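Researcher: We're teaching a course module on how sequence relates to structure. For the next exercise, students receive a sequence and then see the predicted structure as tokens, so they can try to spot secondary structure elements on their own. Here is the exercise chain.
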Amino acid sequence: MIKQNTVFILGAGASAPYNFPTGYNLNWKIIDNFRSRMTKIAHGKNPYMVDNLDKEIAVFLDQFKGTPQTSIDLFLNRHRSIPFFSELGKKAIILSLLDSEKESLVYFTRRNNAGNWYSSIFQYMLNGLENPDSYKQFGDNKITFITFNYDRSLEYYLHYSLSKNFSETLKDENKEAYKEVINKINIIHVYGQLGPLPWQNKMSASPISSTRIESLGYGETTIDYDYLNLLTEYIQTIPERISIPKGDPIWEALAYAEHIFFLGFSFGEENMNMLKETINNIPQHTSIYCTVKGLEQIKIDKIWNQYFNTHFPNGWRRHVWKTEDMDSDALLKKYLLD
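Model: And here is the predicted structure for the students to work with:
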């Protein structure tokens, strides 16, 4: 089990081993598929509405095609003065990632999936849980995931893997107890998630909206237009969340962190500026480890100096700061799982 307060901050690269697109690939998935998907989903609605929707999608995609190197979030931020761009952008993200969730299922069942850090962290969380009813202790791992991703692959994997490891114990009479255990694992979606999974607390699944839907199965792609509209209220984009207010669970998680791992995180300026105040709240001797694949040393140095090398009243912050040009699984095996 993980017995020291450990926080994992996840960027798009953390989901990449499970066939989730990042940046450029997500953009082209939207460009190639969004219009046809929306046409199918809106079929049967008011013809005037459908015609107007198609025209708006054409305008949206025409603009988006001209900026394939720009992330969808940054694109929406730059075009926030056009109201329907935000709504279409959210729908495009939701549909693309639901497709990716469905496609990711095969990656969870491979025995030798390279870079499968979900499996590595799960095994570490499982250490010491040897008795049939010891699944009840799984939620006692001192762990928090702060994810900038909308997909629900991590929570699905943990739920799926724990249920398989204790399949004989988890009969019908233990289902509610199991839900309580799995919901104790603290997974915070900074910008929201695609919707509540069947076992999740409906109130906590959408802290950004008063909208409540029963649940959305993992990889569920059969949804209608009205349901898609509801799902857009479960996620935010960069322009809609520019700060983390005090009292947010992220503050508490970082304030007590003994170890922090940035996994698949690109350290984009908008996200780092949002995190800046909470980073200043990190204890002085916290160890920080980061994957920095593809980042130049000059940017790594800038990140350290701008966000982490801050001054305390009694001296400079004395973090252990390790950056490695490796994937998430390799980083965990080097620093957490050794």
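Model: If you want an answer key for the exercise: The two ends are 13 Å apart (CA to CA). Residues 50 and 294 are 43 Å apart (CA to CA).
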